[in-house]
Design brief:
rod-shaped; mainly alpha; 8 helices; disordered N terminus; 0% strand; single chain
Length: 228
């Protein structure tokens, strides 16, 4: 009975499987992995920046409106200065010109928006580039694997054909798989970041118009009170 017992099957852990997967795929696997890691690094940096730049626009605008109506513009400016959000930056620059003409307030707001938007869109194009590169590198690795397989069938000795054919197929399939996984994940993250960035830009533009209207209305009301 002891002789009949089979040897236990050695099972790979996830690290061993990943190492074998990468090695069987050839050099393009490591290039795709580097591109993937760079894309992830960009995504993490953008997520951290968005958490810093974003703010509850409705709440901030409500606080600014209360201060402006109460003739406490400096308090509104101070409140905006304490926040690192881009909306706060734009609102602060508009509030600093509260006593000037509507056109001057609008110029300050537009200039601030032009300065804020690139900070939101920064490096997003590189994330899209990393996704496209992953797809193309996976395709290039697939072609390399197919060339290797065809060469094995055409030139190798009969005893080596099976092994070389299997190696070529592994290169083709592994690079395709990793390239697609990298590309899909980066494209999803890119879409999420784009949507959040567009939301912040729309919020900045919307509240800028509201602030311009508020300051112009407040200034008009003050002029009428003085005339009366």
């Amino acid at each position: 009975m002891e002789e009949v017992a089979a040897n236990p099957v050695v099972q790979e852990n996830i690290i061993q499987w990943a190492a074998r997967f990468m090695n069987e795929g050839g050099v393009f696997m490591w290039i795709i992995a580097i591109v993937w890691c760079m894309g992830i690094a960009i995504a993490v940096e953008r997520l951290k920046a968005y958490f810093k730049f974003d703010v509850d626009g409705a709440s901030m605008m409500g606080n600014i409106k209360k201060n402006v109506i109460g003739n406490q513009v400096q308090d509104a400016i101070q409140s905006c200065s304490e926040s690192p959000a881009l909306l706060s930056f734009v609102m602060k620059n508009g509030l600093k010109r509260a006593n000037q003409s509507k056109e001057q307030i609008q110029d300050a707001l537009e200039a601030s928006i032009l300065e804020a938007v690139p900070k939101i869109e920064k490096r997003l194009s590189y994330l899209a580039l990393a996704a496209n590169l992953s797809t193309l590198l996976g395709l290039l690795g697939t072609i390399q694997g197919l060339i290797q397989s065809f060469a094995a069938v055409a030139q190798a000795e009969a005893s080596q054909k099976a092994q070389l054919l299997a190696e070529g197929i592994a290169v083709a399939m592994n690079t395709t798989a990793l390239g697609l996984v990298s590309a899909i994940s980066l494209m999803v993250v890119h879409s999420v970041l784009m949507a959040r960035g567009e939301k912040m830009i729309q919020e900045i533009e919307e509240n800028s118009v509201k602030l311009l209207d508020l300051l112009a209305t407040k200034k008009g009301s003050s002029s009428m009170d003085k005339a009366a």
